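Hello again, I could really use a second opinion on something today. I've been puzzling over a protein and I'd love to understand its fold better. I'm sending you its amino acid sequence along with the backbone structure tokens. It would help a lot if you went through both lines with me. I've dropped the whole record in just underneath, so have a look.
***
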Amino acid sequence: MPGDPTSADPSAVDPPVVDPSAAEPDLRHHGDREVGGGLTDLAVNVRTGTPPPWLRERLAASLDGLAAYPDGTAARAAVARRHGRPVGETLLTSGAAEAFVLLARVLRPRRAVVVHPQFTEPEAALRDAGHAVQRLLLRPEEGFRLDPARVPDDADLVVVGNPTNPTSVLHPAADLAALARPGRTLVVDEAFADTVPGEAQSLAGRGDLPGLVVLRSLTKTWGLAGLRIGYVLAEPGTVAALGAAQPLWPVSAPALVAAEACCAPAALAEAEAAARATAADREHLLRGLARIPGVSVHGEPRASFVLVRLDGADAVRERLRGLGFAVRRGDTFPGLGRDWLRIAVRDRATVDGFLKALEAAR
């Protein structure tokens, strides 16, 4: 299956994918460690006001069936319909994070390349499983855009986020599709794809690309971080191998109910409306940031968060906490450093309060 060893020469790298001067970041640091203590949360990219009431009611009703072992048949079929894929090309997981662990356990890559800056769990899972990982660091001066030509030809596992956390950059689907080839597993983390209107540039419906693995999560749009529900879209052989590595009943009954409910047409329409509202609120945030001297945004943010650079951002982050706001530090992402902050998009009133605090904290 894709991701198994190949005979390519691993020394043929041009340009290099490793930055030897980069300080080693804490790959296990996540935004939830920034919040608490009554702070207004702009550190975690989960939509506020979620789960919505109708979903809470569905989840509450599911508790009556907790005596039975969970059956994922209906939820898996709903996910397949939602993306126009056969059921055999879908796998439900305990959040997208479980999928990263499954891939690390099942695949045997000879040359694994992780495109950074991005969500750090894929690299952490690969390293925990004993795999060597090479980093392809995208450049802020190029808007953190991926040039497919920079990916080594002999990489048999490539991991990239789209839209990417923390840069909020949305890579063209054609550029990512160009990376797919026989003998390579191309993992595209689309945890934030439903925060983009129309799910632009998504590869979730592409069952024709060899070795493509798309990961999705219900966490961000539906506020289900504590429930743990995500899924994999991939070739049947890959799905079967990943499923065989799962424990029995890996997804709880309430999480299965959520997966089925959030794939219904009414839920998809609600998610689309939320994505459009988020896009408008993001533009409001960006206009405000542009008025603050010394704050810069690289690339074109397209997701529910914005990455900014400013001198002394680590100290600014601490001062913001004193003013009641939590934002995500950037130095735990490979390719960034202490002068970067990730800011979740919130409603305009919250954004306006944050912008005033940011000006005071600089």
Q: What stands out?
A: Residues 2-22 have pLDDT under 50 and may be disordered. Residues 65-264 form a domain with the Aspartate Aminotransferase; domain 2 fold (CATH 3.40.640.10). The chain has two domains: 31-49+267-361, 65-264.
